[in-house]
Amino acid sequence: MNTIHNRRVVCETLIELSEKDRDIVVLCSDSRGSASMAPFAEKFPSQFIETGIAEQNIVGIAAGLAASGKKPYVASPACFLTTRAAEQIKIDVAYSNTNVKLLGISAGISYGALGMTHHSLQDIALLRAIPGILIAVAADRHEAKRLTEAFNEYTGPAYMRIGRNPVEDVYDSDDYDFQLGKAITMRDGNSLSIITFGETVKTALEAAELMSTGGIDCRVINMHTIKPLDNDCILKAANETGAIITIEEHSIFGGFGAAVAETVVQNCPVPMKIMGIPDEPAVPGKSREVFAYYGISPENLCIEAEKLIKMKKNGW
Description:
The chain is α/β, with parallel strands linked by helices. It contains 12 helices and 14 strands.
């Protein structure tokens, strides 16, 4: 099983795209190493800008470049980019509707042992509340490539959330139907649905396989585009399976689970469980260790699934 850094694939894809599109510009905040953008800087030095640790400035510069017709990609740690530059993202990017692509690297709990200062568990909640910003996350290297290509075709503000660590493949290749705003059903089922994105898609698939040994037929949906949500897919899952678990590498407040719940509760209320990081600084550790600590493991997902199915049968 291949395990490759999505950030490396994003860089490789931007290099391929820049061979034909010299309007692409990559900006880094002293982060070319952690963003894996050093190869881009070496290949296209005239299309690379290093601002140093200055998140507010880098977003403002990117907005100016976009206004002049360039296609800027801002690569910076998600924890700093989305909080320190929140005002610039809100006004210079979203309100001004500039064609800026924000690459939030080392997102979620990727930084592991560095703790709350470097964890990015509020970025989705923050950006979801700002009008006009598309938010998307790739589950593996194949999706990272397709997502980067889609970002280059998309005109307008957008945020790509990228982990720090290598991830296992969930797709066999990048030859599949990928569309921004359209979720992908990775595994069909009728007992309940797990809806997730990014690194936890793999965990959801493992959980569904484990559930199948106990007679639970679990649907797994990869909601790679978090804003706008594929509401049709969510409501189809609610209607057909009658119960939903959401998983996110993010705070349970205001994030992905909340977004799904907003759609479900207003249109087709069913039992739901939102799984993510509770209202506390996340414990330090490797991603899988932290996920397991907070119950995001195949074994615990089976337990939560059984609870929801029981609620469904009892008319909750």
